[in-house]
Amino acid sequence: MYTAPVTRSASRAEAADTQDRILDAARGLFHRRGYAAVGVQEICREAGVVKGSFYHFFSTKEELLEAVIDRNWRRQNAHLERLRQAPGPARERLTGYLRGIVGHARRMHRENGQILGCDLGTIACELAPLAGAPQPRLRTVMRRWLRSLEQLIEQGREDGSLDRGVDPRATAESMLAVIQGMSVLGRTLDRPAVLDRIATAAARLLPTPEA
After folding, report:
1. In terms of residue numbers, what domain contains 33?
2. Residue 47 CA, distance from chain mean position
């Protein structure tokens, strides 16, 4: 029986798939259980790889954590970029963003029986008291998140959907605080209705010119 030779491109594809499985397993475990509670062996078991494969890509668990933070941010940033590029009034896009967080929490509650909250926020809360390499990365991520929200608020001032007196920086900071507060309360209280009320109240941070 003919067996196709293993090509260099196939080998690269297999390596990329292995790395992706490790990252995906770590993302899920860190989100559900926390960084400190999860060991390398458990990550390998969840990913279906041996420890040697893990250490081929990551020299330490902390290095893996930094890669997880980067991957979580790329997913979040892609969503924010779609919001910035989407048509329609910026205020509607911002309130839709908050409603989307509630919708995601409802799906988690329905499918997993638990609201897990924001993957970046969960890691940030756990690591906040600790000194170490991931802290600058997390600060950079939060600053970029704030800047994305600030740009959307600036768009709202320009398109007339937000009052011109709105302070983009302060409003962005308040919105991100609400989002992370929703994450903590969602995970703690595990009640989507609470997040629904918070999202509705948070719309007051985005006054229209008539308000």
Report:
1. 7-59
2. 21
